[in-house]
Specification:
heterodimer; A: 250 residues; mainly alpha; globular; B: mainly alpha; F1FO ATP Synthase
Chain lengths: 250, 78
Amino acid sequence: MATEEAGNGFNIHPMDQFEITNLFGGGPIHWYSFTNATLWMGLAIVAVILLLVVGTRKRATVPSRSQSIAELMYGFVYTMIEDVAGKEGLKFFPYIFTLFIFVLISNFLGLLPMSFTTTSHIAVTACLAMAVFLTVTALGFYKNGAKFLGLFWVSSAPLALRPILAVIELISYFVRPVSHSIRLAGNVMAGHAVIKVFAGFAGALGIWAALPIVSITAVYGLEVLVAGIQAYVFTILTCVYLNDALHPSH
Amino acid sequence: MEGNIAELGQYIGAGLACIGMGGAGIGVGTVAGNFLSGALRNPAAAGAQTATLFIGIAFAEALGIFSFLVALLLMFAV
């Protein structure tokens, strides 16, 4: 580990905020332990329920603030799926909307001071990405049978090149869950670590601490943007993969 | 000056790994810049292509995130 004390009051531990701790009793973490990750994932689900169930309960014709936010998100994801994956993709709207809203709310909850960001852990995002990958692969074979393998056989390329391209396509297909999960976790983790590094500067600079605090504000604004964009990117890539499974012609 | 050579290697390696982020920066800049120049030529068609823009940015950026991850692994996990 390279996180020893650097001396002269200049201690920056940007990765400590991602530590998973047992909330009750401490000690080693088992699969049934109630950790801070469990707590914040639960809070994300509670927030989603508050927004989508309680917020839209009145079903007013002129929507209230929370109802119009819920309707906006619904319409946003609906048109996204329709544009990218076509009409057949709309069968998977509940799944994709669940992914979108869970990632979005988790990202935003992670931006609260002193909170824990569940989506900064590759374990969490890898679960989501593997679920997408397995669903899409199974769906591709179920819908198209062996024709799904045509995804790897680029019929527009010269015949001599096709085996080489097939290998490349195969590799890029199996890297999908890796890049899909690391993109989200890496972006969120990087932003939070940057904020922590600037916070470390503020602690060390004394009277000049105003400078890093201004930068923290700016980076925080960027992070709000990143939280939204990464949830969007995660969802739209799911739609792209879904489109590949539904229409595998190359 | 004291310390072990493995730690030196960790720090130098983490610094070198960050060079990869420059490549991602070039990639994202190329995608966004070309989108903008195309969008200014034909603003009517630009709105429908924002999804493609974000997909392109995401693919370019993922590789930078990989290099950041390598740096983090060298600093904190090795």
